[in-house]
Write a structure and sequence with these properties.
EC 2.7.1.23; alpha+beta; cytoplasm; globular; six-stranded antiparallel sheet; seven-stranded antiparallel sheet
Length: 306
């Protein structure tokens, strides 16, 4: 990998993350690399400025923070084919990040990157648009929104907790109507986040699939489903006359859904690309560590395979 122009995004209002970003910037600039650096957070979105300011191809994005910081980066950088080195500096679970211990010797990290001593993991993303008109000739009335974890359609109100009635179609065929708190359309990456909290399936990130999970449905028969990645998921809000229904991408507000409009969700054309520095990576070990899987209450070691 060449390191001629690099993005460094650090978690906003986190001194340790900012300090490491500044250290990385100095080291890379000493290697004749142009660095674009800035904070990323709820009120800080540096990526449009980064992309507009780039004088040449961006070789790498170093993102220092937690999973929320990484999700924001992926939504902008995946469509530009920019690989992401995500490091857990100031995060909590860190599902998507490399351990901070591996990153501490930063000079060695730069040597490894320049000598191609790393792996790249591709993760599927979703894209969504708002449509209106008839089903045969729908008209897109919004920009394309992207998510690495999930698209969520749910009501939002300041002074009450409304429920929603959502009809879902897959490839033009009505599947079900859900009455409840909303609906999640998730990638395998997102299956361990909000979808897992809603009792959805956990899917290995090496797979390409879409998980559709109702949030707190008012029917015991409403179940999560896993569908092929090429599916078109259409979500129709029913009976919404007060503009309570919103589309969310990775927990961030995308847009409102007006009466008569619906959401179309598909697999995005581009994948998020993550740099892996660990010598061995195990999704199952990550599940055990991050979700604190403890196994049976009575631990049994007998008759193990050698």
């Amino acid at each position: 990998m060449q390191l001629k122009q690099v993005i460094i995004a650090h978690k906003a209002n986190h001194p340790q993350s900012k300090a490491w970003a500044e250290k990385c910037a100095k080291q890379l600039e000493a290697r004749q690399c142009k660095v674009l650096m800035g904070p990323s957070g709820f009120k800080d979105n540096p990526y449009p400025v980064f992309l507009a300011s780039a004088s040449e191809k961006i070789d790498l994005a170093i993102v220092l923070g937690g999973d929320g910081t990484i999700l924001a980066a992926a939504r902008y950088l995946a469509q530009q084919d920019i690989p992401i080195l995500a490091v857990n500096v100031g995060g909590h679970l860190g599902f998507l990040t490399e351990p901070f211990e591996i990153f501490q010797d930063t000079e060695t990290v730069w040597e490894r990157l320049q000598s191609d001593h790393y792996a790249v993991q591709q993760r599927m993303m979703l894209t969504a648009r708002i449509y209106e008109g008839d089903k045969i000739n729908p008209q897109a009335v919004s920009e394309a929104f992207y998510a690495l974890n999930e698209m969520c359609v749910k009501p939002a109100s300041i002074d009450r907790m409304p429920t929603s009635i959502l009809e879902i179609e897959v490839d033009g065929e009505v599947v079900d109507q859900y009455q409840g708190d909303g609906l999640l359309v998730a990638t395998p990456t997102g299956s361990t986040c909000y979808t897992a909290s809603a009792n959805g399936p956990i899917i290995h990130p090496g797979m390409e699939a879409i998980a559709v999970t109702p949030i707190c449905p008012l029917s015991l028969s409403s179940r999560p489903i896993v569908i092929p990645p090429a599916s078109l998921v259409s979500i129709w809000p029913l009976g919404d006359y007060e503009l309570n229904t919103k589309l969310w991408m990775d927990g961030a507000l995308a847009t409102s859904i007006w009466p008569g409009q619906w959401v179309g969700v598909t697999k995005a054309e581009k994948f998020a690309q993550f740099i892996i520095l660990r010598e061995s990576y195990s999704f199952y070990q990550t599940l055990q560590e991050k979700l604190q899987w403890a196994g049976a209450r009575i631990h049994y070691d007998g008759n193990r395979h050698n």
